[in-house]
């Protein structure tokens, strides 16, 4: 599993290296959220994502819907 996480870290580092010369601000929450999503997809679902580049991937869009949904009392009590 360590090699899977390391592969995701390498991809994330490459995207960070591409963003560095531009000297633009990045949304760090989204950036590392993409990394976490890549790791979860790779380790738990054996799916190779590059959520940094492909925000239209169905796995990415559905997971954002789930994690950005408001907390309801039923969900909290679950």
Automatic annotation (TrEMBL):
Signal peptide: none annotated. It holds the Pfam family p450. One of its GO terms (molecular function) is oxidoreductase activity, acting on paired donors, with incorporation or reduction of molecular oxygen. It comes from the Eukaryota. The keyword Acetylation does not apply. Keywords: Heme, Iron, Metal-binding, Monooxygenase, Oxidoreductase. The keyword Repressor does not apply. PANTHER family: CYTOCHROME P450 FAMILY 3, FATTY-ACID PEROXYGENASE. Belongs to the cytochrome P450 family. This is Uncharacterized protein.
